[in-house]
Structures are given as structure tokens and as C-alpha cells.
Amino acid sequence: MARRSGATLAEIAAEAGVSLSTMSKVLNGRPDVSAATRERLEQHLRRHGYTRRGAQRAEMIEVVFHELEAAWSMEVIEGVLDVAQQAGLSIVLTVSGDRHAPSPDWLDGVLRRRPLGVVLVFSDLPAPHRAKLRSRGVPFAIVDPAGDPAPDVPSVGSANWSGGLAATRHLIELGHQRIAAITGPEDMMCSLARVDGYRSAMNAANLPIDPDWIRFGDFHATGGESHARALLTRPNPPTAIFAGSDLQAMGVISAASAQGLSVPGDLSVVGYDDIDLARWLSPQLTTVHQPLRRMGEEAARLVIRLAGGESVDTLRMDLATHLVVRGSTAPPAS
Amino acid sequence: MARRSGATLAEIAAEAGVSLSTMSKVLNGRPDVSAATRERLEQHLRRHGYTRRGAQRAEMIEVVFHELEAAWSMEVIEGVLDVAQQAGLSIVLTVSGDRHAPSPDWLDGVLRRRPLGVVLVFSDLPAPHRAKLRSRGVPFAIVDPAGDPAPDVPSVGSANWSGGLAATRHLIELGHQRIAAITGPEDMMCSLARVDGYRSAMNAANLPIDPDWIRFGDFHATGGESHARALLTRPNPPTAIFAGSDLQAMGVISAASAQGLSVPGDLSVVGYDDIDLARWLSPQLTTVHQPLRRMGEEAARLVIRLAGGESVDTLRMDLATHLVVRGSTAPPAS
Predict the structure, then answer these.
(1) Statement: residue B262 has pLDDT above 90
(2) Of A5, A146, A287, B25, which has the fewest CB atoms closer than 10 Å, so is most exposed?
(3) Chain A residue numbers touching B247 (CB-CB < 8 A)
(4) CA angle at residue A194 from A190 to A197, to 5 degrees?
(5) Of B71, B92, B283, the CB nearest to A71
(6) Is the per-residue pLDDT at B2 higher than 60?
(7) B80 close to B116: Cβ distance less than 8 angstroms
């Protein structure tokens, strides 16, 4: 029951001039408190550094996505679920907000549900949200944060730069020189890191990069398709494309095949993620294996340890990526 | 607070010679009651037709799978999640048991979690489990039951027989005569219904069916691949294969391409499900659209209505399927 400040909830309520019941409603995310009062009482809680401890917790971990993308999301979920079920916990699945933050509603919901902890996937958590969760003693960890995670935020990522480097090196070793890169949004660190890996591999091999060859988009198949269509209809098209996700790679292959190009005969394609289906595509997809399942597992373990009051010495963990060579890459036709 | 029997929980406990607290533990799935006592007390509850009402419910729907298969499961989850979030509910995701029933542990877990209701996916629920959930006032619905659902079990399926018929007719109309069918497990009604649709289409066209052409397996890619390999290395191989799932179809295409056969040039392939990725395969997959998302939505709506005390007149609902013709089917070569 230790708290950073000596003040009890009743004392903070008295200071704020509200009843304990109102204070308690705010603490538990219950409705019927006006937004203004809520905000004012949150300030009191923050000023006292109030941290709730020992409150009854639901036996569950909440997993929050900003979108469910079948192949990708499911592997992360499976990782969290494995670790949770071994610990006798269930998981609550929530889709909320965008990749910058879950929606404000979500925060009230999670305070009502009182999970043991929260795993946020591919989403950031603004400072006020972090403070709220901390004051309620709800630990959290982030899988593959979209931006620079704050240094005090527990997070699990993977080696994006090395992945981009390995994918591009493989294409260079096959003899490709005109290599384009399609990646995710420009404001996501993972997109930037992968493209920087690509750049470094190209520079190390003294290969020029046409500015038009680097394309930011989303991680979906449609984006891969439209960027590839643009690239392949250029006068001097690339002979290889490094895609930012396996879905984008499927879009690229679809665009190639619409233009009568065969993969890997006329165009080599490397994906990213190594989703379960990658080896069932025809041709089987050469791709960078991102340990999505293990990332989910590690984030769940972090949350369980934090919930148990353990201190965690490494708040940031980057798991290794590696290239899996399959059938979608080959030497250029020339 | 109405109950079918007049007996209160205290009266039933007294009759059984245990304390109210022990009875209450059994009711709420708490541990520290021996299995034998638990079973004995369940019998007392059943005999009195005890139904708990009005107990506090967590604001969530529990979704139970026996396995998470990325593409397929995610669409059902999305459907449930949409309806749940609109109703201000969260979802709990559980993987448990096999396709005949969730594990016994699960049942205790769900009694502790007290969700508003349960959606079981692709799983059956044995009569004693149904009785337990009913006595706790936890409504449930089943998505695509594996066997004949009991007539009093709310369930949402889809028109499997019509799907099998439409897929096979399409192949026949293209001019195929040697058509094989790979489907799911022989003890699942949906597998049988799809194969019966296939048989009816073949019979209506006076086409013979070699017994070796009908193959039961699982719904995974590996199964599709091995059955297709066996079929395609026969002396007089089929020119078209109707697969029981899109994953199986990917396995079939993989087997064909390993034998140097092109799809649809040398072999036409029809899948089943129409998962999100089906249109991103190369060639794009011709497949039977099964409204997985809508099946999840309808099951969630059923559960919410039942939880609200509404009576539901149609306990069984079969949503329509339809064929989506894309690039993996064509007239036979010869």
C-alpha cells in the first residue's frame, strides 16, 4: 500500500473539495463526472504523485491495437496470449485511436476494467496517459513503438536497420544495382530505420540512389501496389524492390504481374515481417523475419513482471531480425 | 431476480449440507473446492434449475477459439469487436480446447470473469457446459458449429452446401470434367456440406467422381499441399481442384508450382472463405465468399440481445455465401 506521497485518497478529495465518492469515480474511470472536474481532480492526483497499489486487479492483460491487420496482428496476439495463459491470465483485445495514441475513451475504459497490465501494439502513449496509468498502478509496455519511445517507457522492438541492410545486401549480392525501397509512413521510426539500412547497403556498394526510388506509404498491400506501378512504368525501372512489409510485397508482386513481369525472373522482391503465409505464396516470399510472436511474448512478460512489483533493468529491448531467402529473389535478367 | 425454481442459493446449500460460501465458490468458478464436491453441488444446482440473474457482469464479451488461424480468425474477431465496441463492451479472447469443446479449465475461468456473454468460434459446447453457463445466466452463441448444433443452441453459420455447389458449377461451366475436392475434417458438418454441394454439381452434370478425388484433411495450407501433390501425380490427374479453405488453396497452388504446373493454365483452383488476402495472391484467388466478419457480428448481436433478456425467435441463422471469380480459374488446357 506504499505511496510516493503520504496523502490518502480521502485527504486529496478533501483538499480538492469533493467527496471521496467523486474522487473514487475519477480514479476508476466511471462516467457521471464532468470533464472539467475530472481534469481538475487528475491534477490533484498528479500533484500528490498518488499511486494506487494493491487494488483488486482483473486477471487479464489488455492488448491495444490501433488497427487489426490480420497476419501481422495475430502473431503479436498469439505471443501475448501464450505468456498470459501460462500465467493464468486472459487477454482483453481493444482497437482504439491511431498510431499516435489510443482514444481518450479507451483510457476511462481501461481504468474501469483494471487489467493487470496493458500491452500497446504499434502505438505511442502520450505523457498524460502514461501518468494516468501509473497513478492507478497499471503497468504497460509497447510493442514496436511508432516513434522514439520516451526513455522511461518499457518497449519491445526489433532490429529494423539491420533488417533493411540485410534485405538490400542480399539483392546487391545477387547482382542488382537499380533497387527501390517502399516503406511505411515517414513519421514512424521503423520505416526510417529500414530505409536507412537500405541506404547504407547501397552506399557501401557505391550504388547510386535515385530519389524517386525511396517511397513512403502505409504498410498495406494497396500502397505496395500503387508505388510499384509507378516505379515499374518509369523509363529505367528498378530490377528489385525491397518492400516494407509482406503485405506491401504482395501488392508489388500483383503490380508486376499486372504488367506482365514475372517474379523473380523480371523483378526481385523482398518483403518484411515473415508472416505465416509468406512461405505459402507463389513464389515463396524472400523476406526479413521480424519476431512478431516473440515481441508479443516479451512485452507480456515485461508487464507481468512490472505488475508483480519487480524492477526491470532494461526498459528497451530490440530483438534480432534475419533474412529468410526463398523464391521471390534471383539475379537480374539483364 | 426471477428463478425457475423458488429455491435460493442458501436453501440449495443447506439441502446439500455445505455452507453458502462453498456454494458461492462453485457458482463463481473459484478454486479450493474439490472436484467431487464441485460436481455434487452442480447436480444440486441443476436439479433446482437454479439460474442466477441480475449478478454484476463484466462489460465484455468473451470470444473463444480452439485455435487462432490468422486470416480466418481475425475476420470473425473484427466482426465481434465492431458490435461489442458499438455497445460499449470490450472483448476477451481465449484459446482453449479442441473443436469439440473448450477445456474444463475454461469453464471455471469464464465463471470467474463473468462476461456479459460468450461467442464460441468453430467449437461445440457439450450439454453439461451449456447447463453450467445457463445456470449462471451467461448467454452464448456459436459461430459455424463443427457438428449438428443442438436445436436449443443459438448459432450462426453459412450456406456451405450452396458454396460447394457454386464453386463446382463454375469449374464445370469452364469445361472441366476431372474435378477433385479437398475439404476439412470428415466429422465437421461444414466439410460434409461443401463436399455434398460438389457431389450434387458433378451428378447434375453427369460427371463421374473417382473416389480418390474427395479428400478430407484439415483446413491448413500443408494439408492442401500434400493432398494436391498426391492428386497431381496420379496417372490421369484432375484439371481443377476445389479447396476447402483459401489456405488449402494456397497449399494446392504451391504443390502445382512445385510440379511445374501453372495456375490457372494447367490447373484451376477455387478456394473457400475469401480471406482479405485472397485478392492479393498471384493469381488472384477465385473463391467462395464466406461472410466471416458478418458471422462474428451476428453472433455478438445474438449474445447481447440474450444478455438483455430479449427472446430470440430464430436460434439458427445461416448467412449466404457466394462465388467470387478471380484469376485462379480458367478453361482446361486441352
Answers:
(1) yes
(2) A5
(3) 277, 280
(4) 140
(5) B71
(6) no
(7) no
Helix (H) / strand (E) containing A63: strand A60-65
Domain at B60-158+292-319, CATH from 3.40.50.20, 3.40.50.2300, 3.10.690.10, 1.10.275.10 = 3.40.50.2300
Cβ <8 Å between B282 and A257: yes
The CATH H-level (homologous superfamily) assignment of domain B160-290 is Response regulator (3.40.50.2300)
Task: Give the CATH superfamily of A160-291.
Answer: Response regulator (3.40.50.2300)
Give the A window 156-215 contacts with B, CB below 8 Å: none
Which DSSP string do the residues of B275-303 spell out, in sequence order? -GGGGGSSSPPEEEE--HHHHHHHHHHHH
Residues on chain A touching B263 (C-beta within 8 angstroms): 282
For chain A of 334 residues, list the mean pLDDT of each consecutive stretch of 10: 63 89 83 85 83 73 85 89 93 84 82 91 82 90 74 88 96 98 89 94 97 93 96 96 96 96 97 94 95 95 92 86 97 87
Residue B114: list chain A partners with CB under 8 A.
Answer: none
Query: What confidence score (pLDDT) does residue A222 get?
Result: 95
Could you report the predicted ipTM of this complex, rounded to two decimals? 0.81
Q: What is the pLDDT of residues B217-237, one digit of tens each?
A: 888 999 999 999 999 999 999
Q: Which of A59, A77, A282 sits opposite B254 (nearest CB)?
A: A282
Domain range list for chain A? 9-47, 60-158+292-319, 160-291
User: What's chain B's average pLDDT?
Assistant: 89
Burial (CB < 10 A; 0-12, 13-18, 19+), residue B43, is exposed
- Would the CB atoms of B282 and A282 count as touching at under 8 Å? yes
How is residue A253 written as a grid cell?
508482386
Q: Is the pLDDT of residue B128 over 70?
A: yes
Q: Which of B73, B74, B326 to mutate to test the interface with A (most CBs of A within 10 A)?
A: B74
* CA gap A260, B72 in Å, rounded: 31
Specify the pTM: 0.84
